[in-house]
Automatic annotation (TrEMBL):
Enzyme Commission identifier(s): 1.1.1.28
Protein family per UniProt: Belongs to the D-isomer specific 2-hydroxyacid dehydrogenase family.
Enzyme type, top EC level: oxidoreductase
Gene3D superfamilies in UniProt: NAD(P)-binding Rossmann-like Domain (3.40.50.720)
Name of the featured protein: 2-hydroxyacid dehydrogenase
Annotated D-isomer specific 2-hydroxyacid dehydrogenase catalytic domain residues: 30-330
Amino acid sequence: MEILAYGVQSDEEPLLREAFAKVFADRHGLRCLGLFLDRDTARTAHGHEVVLSSVNDTLDDEVLRALAEGGTRMIAQRSTGYNNIDLGAAEDLGLSVARVSFYSPYSVAEFAWALALAVNRRIVRAAHRTREFDFRLDGLMGRDLRGRTAGVVGTGKIGAAFTRIAHGFGMRLLGWDLVENPDCLALGMEYVPRERLFAEADLVSLHVPLLPDTHHLVDAEALARMKDDAVLVNSSRGGLVDTDALLETLRAGRLTGVGLDVYEEEAGVFFLDKSLEVMTDERLARLMTFSNVLVTSHQAYFTRDAVAQIAQATVGNVQDHLAGRTSDNTLVRAQAA
């Protein structure tokens, strides 16, 4: 049997192939495609029982129906998030769906801090200047983090890893989550209402999943509560931030810096080379015009450690499907034949 993987990055492919070869050897082949799965490409999966999807694939009712009609029975998502998959449609079509519920939380937490430090200390602007032999310090002044307040929205594995780093910087810790994390409490974190966190934090970092209740969690009201010189970092899901409200806030000259590794309309843009095209997404283009905004292309998870763990978990999900088993990674169990 040949297994088909969509949206595979060139640096990811060797790790994915290694993980599959280690378990399946010659029993099952792996075909890796750089293209993303959507309505136009779904037909390429015809005849493949197992499809490996990426976070920026589109798996709506139409795509899932095309997959099912082509013989697909299992979708293994190579990410923790799965808001791009219509789980109800998958269940109706008798498809099994699994995700990767855990991989190195340090990959994302460390990258979130890279964004925070870069915008606080104007690293990108400084690098651009020095490449042109401009060594002035004008406009590059940042702030010490020690003694300031970190607001961590979501204190699961990634949020807790972010919190430990903040504790190392000597920051005051505020948290918001539905369930308090004992590890964060042990570091001195105070859990407070979301409104207070936005109002008091000098740095706000988002680490919650994208759900109906968290969509546009950072909206105009939340942004209005934030300090004028606060830093906002989102390395979780783009839909957590209302981009229009963020643009209005930035146009008003508020926020010291914004670090975004995700964007609510990133599908069809992130992971692709758009350098020779006109950027038709006006909101993204406008975001990029602000010197205090740093946008990266959903790369926070992209370390050798995390990607290897994702590959191994994906192999395990495929094994479970072939054996008729379920696990904590299972989102939809296939209907019995």
